[in-house]
């Protein structure tokens, strides 16, 4: 594994009070996408954790050695660490971070609240599985990057320049199970959806609205693409998240 971590890609932890917030980044990305939001949460006095998921933030080759079990295990471990220190813990998930948030909800029913930002919770269809498997069988190990889907000019996401296929397949497989478990969400959720997203279709959010067993507040982001936390609506996301956490997690 590579020791050098991308800029702003280090894990973030800020000890605070007895209320915790876990922030989870997306596939091929880094903690840089949730860092500003983490800092805002920390400023409110929450204990905040934003782990760097295994294989992320270094090189594509590192990510190729990991898969869903590694990422989901890290998410559960980070949640458990916060839960040991805090009375109540909320989870904020961006993209695959939202997938992981649902996985945590399935195994840890005491999650106090959720914030989903352009979450990936719906499988695209069998043709995606077939395409990925065909490419891998042909010796193609990576395809184009899914990073930097940002509308704001001059903003570049700190993410990998390629998307490794084998880890992506593990995510495709996992999201099918995650979708079946959306009913395990019983806590309140804030769902933040970009109206234009070139990575995750907006109907992923519909799945949370329709299948969650907890109340869902949905807010549309009209001026951002997929990585909305780095985009034009970042201030709206941050202020809406802080207000939601104050109402459902506490100060």
Layout of helices and strands, plus pairs?
Elements: E1 12-14, E2 19-24, H1 35-43, E3 47-50, H2 60-63, H3 68-85, E4 88-94, H4 96-107, E5 113-117, H5 126-137, E6 142-144, E7 162-164, H6 165-180, E8 189-194, H7 203-211, E9 216-221, H8 234-248
Parallel strand pairs: 2-3, 2-4, 4-5, 5-8, 8-9
Antiparallel strand pairs: 1-3, 6-7
Helix pairs in contact: 1-8, 3-4, 4-6, 5-6
What would you say this structure looks like, in words?
The structure is a single chain. With 251 residues, the chain is α/β, with parallel strands linked by helices. It has a single domain (12-248), classed as Rossmann fold (3-Layer(aba) Sandwich), CATH 3.40.50. 38% of the residues lie in helices and 17% in strands. It has helices at 35-43, 60-63, 68-85, 96-107, 126-137, 165-180, 203-211, 234-248; strands at 12-14, 19-24, 47-50, 88-94, 113-117, 142-144, 162-164, 189-194, 216-221. The strands form two sheets. A seven-stranded mixed β-sheet has the order 1-3-2-4-5-8-9, sandwiched between helices. It has a two-stranded antiparallel sheet with strand order 6-7. 46% of the residues are buried.
CATH architecture: 3-Layer(aba) Sandwich
Strand order of the largest sheet: 1-3-2-4-5-8-9
Shape call:
globular
Q: What would CATH call the homologous superfamily?
A: Alpha/Beta hydrolase fold, catalytic domain
Reported by name, the CATH topology is Rossmann fold
User: What string, H for helix and E for strand, traces the elements in order?
Assistant: EEHEHHEHEHEEHEHEH
Q: Would you tell me the overall average pLDDT?
A: 94
Please report the distance between the alpha carbons of the first and last residues.
Answer: 39 Å
Radius of gyration: 17 Å
- Helix percent reads 25-40%
- Helix count from the secondary structure assignment: 8
CATH class: Alpha Beta
- How many DSSP-defined strands? 9
Q: Look at the helices and sheets and give the structural class.
A: alpha/beta
Strand content: 15-25%
Number of domains: 1
* Poorly predicted tracts of residues: none
Task: Summarize the biggest pleated sheet.
Answer: 7 strands, mixed
């Amino acid at each position: 594994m590579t020791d050098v971590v991308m800029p702003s890609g280090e894990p973030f932890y800020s000890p605070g009070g007895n209320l915790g917030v876990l922030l989870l980044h997306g596939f091929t990305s880094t903690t840089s996408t949730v860092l500003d939001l983490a800092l805002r949460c920390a400023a409110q006095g929450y204990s905040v954790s934003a782990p760097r998921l295994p294989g992320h933030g270094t090189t594509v080759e590192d990510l190729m050695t990991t898969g869903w079990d590694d990422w989901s295990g890290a998410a559960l471990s980070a949640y458990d660490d916060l839960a040991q220190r805090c009375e109540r813990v909320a989870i904020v998930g961006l993209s695959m971070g939202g997938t992981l948030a649902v996985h945590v909800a399935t195994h840890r029913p005491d999650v106090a609240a959720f914030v989903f930002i352009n979450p990936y919770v719906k499988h695209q269809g069998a043709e995606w599985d077939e395409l990925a498997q065909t490419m891998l069988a042909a010796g193609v190990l990576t395809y184009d990057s899914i990073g930097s889907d940002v509308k704001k000019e001059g903003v570049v996401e700190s993410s990998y320049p390629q998307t490794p296929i084998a880890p992506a397949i593990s995510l495709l497989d996992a999201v099918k199970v995650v979708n079946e478990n959306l009913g395990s969400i019983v806590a309140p959720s804030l769902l933040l959806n970009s109206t234009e997203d070139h990575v995750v279709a907006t109907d992923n959010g519909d799945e949370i609205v329709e299948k969650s067993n907890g109340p869902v507040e949905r807010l549309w982001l009209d001026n951002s693409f997929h990585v909305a936390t780095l985009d034009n609506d970042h201030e709206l996301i941050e202020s809406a998240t802080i207000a939601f956490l104050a109402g459902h997690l506490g100060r």
